[in-house]
Design a protein that fits this description.
By secondary structure, this protein is an alpha+beta fold. It has 7 helices and 4 strands.
């Protein structure tokens, strides 16, 4: 599952890209952005500022990337806004099918998580097996 590359003629394995935080934290961050912007498009710099970061690099960039990987924000023309998935999670009642479906979509949006689900449809194996 790790990406392969070549370095000095040798194979180099990199860890697959994944969000910097779990879905629960991502939803909390999306709620913060929604509280400030509703669904208005804005810049990544403004989103980072709403989340308590001064810039879109380092931790601020990882926060924005996590929201994007979970599908909670979407880009259009260089601006970002809360996505339909993010809106459904934030606004439908907790026991609604729409919210449950949106949470499932978000949980499987990161490429790594989707690939793991496809490879192990019944249940995830141990951490040791995943690491190997």
């Amino acid at each position: 599952m790790a990406e392969e590359g070549a370095k000095n003629g040798k194979k180099v394995f990199r860890s697959p890209n994944h969000p910097a935080f779990d879905l629960e934290e991502a939803i909390s961050k999306a709620a913060t952005v929604y509280e400030k912007e509703k669904r208005s498009p804005t810049t990544p710099k403004v989103i980072a500022k709403h989340l308590g970061y001064n810039q879109t690099t380092g931790p601020g960039g990882r926060a924005i990337s996590g929201l994007r990987q979970y599908g909670l924000i979407e880009e259009s023309g260089g601006h970002w806004r809360i996505s339909d998935t993010g809106f459904a999670i934030l606004h439908y009642p907790e026991d609604s099918k729409e919210r449950r479906d949106a949470i499932k979509r978000a949980a499987l949006s990161p490429t790594l998580f989707r690939e793991l689900r496809e490879q192990y449809p019944d249940a995830l194996p141990s951490d040791e097996t995943l690491t190997a």
